[in-house]
Amino acid sequence: MSTQSVRLDSCASSIDCRKMLRKDNDDGSDQLDLVDTLDKLSDAAFALDEDARIVSWSPGAEALLGHSAKSAIGAFCSEILQGVYPSGEPMCGPMCETMDCLRMEKNHSVDACLLRHKDGYVFPARIISVLTKPDHDPPGTKRATAVLFMQSTETAAPIFPYRQLKLFTLGHFSLVYSGKGMAVDNWKRKQALTVLKYLVGRVNHPVHRDELIKAIWPETESNRGWDRLKVTISFLRSQLQQSGVAIDPVLTLDHSYMLRGDIVWIDSVEFEKLVTAGNRHMQDKRMDEALACFKDADRLYRGDFLEDDPLIGWCIRERERLRECYFDMLAGMAECQAAKGDHRAAAQSCQRALYRDQSRESFLRSLIDSLGKIDQSAWGKSQHDIWRRIQGKEFEMVPKPEYIKIYEELIRASKDDPEAIE
Predict the structure, then answer these.
(1) What SS3 state is found at 54?
(2) How is residue 101 annotated by DSSP?
(3) Cα-flanking dihedrals φ and ψ of residue 215, to 5°?
């Protein structure tokens, strides 16, 4: 089977795979020439062996996906590409159609898919594979294929941070583009915001139109719901364009829509990244760096996730998950502040957590401990009394033994003579 000449329409020039890849060596193998060629290729390309392991990785592939040749070569291509079909089903792995075709000595192309960059965002692409070995392979040689892919022309232009669409979901929902807030509260079609909010919760994941219709118009018949969704998506895109947003952040993928995380900034996503980084610094005993991350995360958490919509069922789970992340942040902040000897700040962090949820005994325990270290036993006893009153009245809870021990130590250290704990 001979190698085909392939042209990618979105390339500036055609790619002649016969000239680029096909060089017969004395031993009948062309794999070494293929590897050497791809090492110098500016187009995004890589070569596979018959086990679907990467044997060569071009500089263009590194530019497109972010993975260096050192990290890519030797890995299974599914681990690097993490491709999915536009409708959301996995494309890479045991079900790979490309590898099935190559094993049958057939070239294969995927006209539309989503690939994942090393930094986590996904982007639309297409893949063309070309066999590079002659029909009769010498014994002991492996068939190699060059897989050429390139990013959609829609995302070819660089996206600069100051031109990103910023979505603020923690607290009051708002949009900012190029430093200017959008008057979303004045939009005539409020359902456009609801659709955008739903896609935010599934950023980088295609959401089928039926799922959107069911979530937003649950009582509406399917065909009528589809008409409403098309009009709503059109209105959303129109409003974003009128605000100057140059690249549409809502990607249409067959019967699905996806909010593209590569061209938008979302506060809840950044918040989680900062908390994760802070916890990682704490594990490494880098308390200054950890505290800096927690403080940055704290600035982003203006309120609970989409708190303007407290009764919408599909955002409750995400709201609770991010709320737990917020308590994790406050716990880490208090621990860092205590480790640095700033017990007053640690106490304030614990108080903020208790203000949001009085049932968190771990924060009361840390609060009492911090107050004891700054000779604030009266303040500590007051907090204890408030907590006991609320817990006994609303939850019928009693303190755990380890908490009672900390509280008794606080009382013994006091110059006052308070009553013992009942």
Answers:
(1) strand
(2) H
(3) -75, -35
> If we measure between CA atoms, which residue out of 56, 50, 11 comes closest to residue 38?
56
Q: Tokens 């539309």 sit at which residue?
A: 112
Provide the 10 A C-beta neighbour count for residue 302.
Answer: 14
Please, which residues have CB within 8 angstroms of residue 396's CB and are 6 or more apart in sequence? Answer: none
Side-by-side strand order, sheet with 145-151: 54-57, 45-48, 145-151, 122-131, 108-116
**What is the spatial distance between Cα 384 and Cα 367, in angstroms, rounded to a whole number?**
10
Distance from C-alpha of 362 to C-alpha of 353, rounded to nearest angstrom: 10
Q: In the numeric block, which tokens belong to residue 373?
A: 């270290």
Task: Retrieve residue 324's tokens.
Answer: 């737990």
Question: Do the beta carbons of residue 206 and residue 199 sit within 8 Å?
Answer: no
DSSP for 116-141 reads E-TTS-EEEEEEEEEE-S-SSPPTT-
Tell which residue, 112, 122, 236, has the closest CA to residue 175: 236
Q: If DSSP codes are grouped into helix, strand and coil, which group holds residue 166?
A: strand
Give how far the C-alpha of residue 246 lies from the chain's centroid of Cα atoms, to the nearest Å: 23
Q: Which residue has the tokens 């408030």?
A: 386
Q: Quick check: 287 and 302 in contact, CB under 8 A?
A: no
Per-residue pLDDT 10s for the chain (422 aa) are 333 333 333 333 333 443 444 444 444 443 434 555 667 777 788 888 877 888 888 888 898 889 998 999 988 888 898 887 775 656 776 667 777 777 777 777 777 788 888 887 778 888 887 776 554 445 554 555 556 555 553 444 444 444 678 899 999 898 988 767 888 888 989 999 999 999 999 999 999 999 999 999 988 888 899 999 999 999 999 999 998 888 899 999 889 999 998 889 899 999 999 999 999 999 999 999 999 999 989 988 989 999 988 878 888 989 999 999 999 999 999 999 999 999 999 999 998 998 888 778 788 888 888 887 777 666 666 666 666 655 555 545 555 565 555 555 555 554 444 443 33
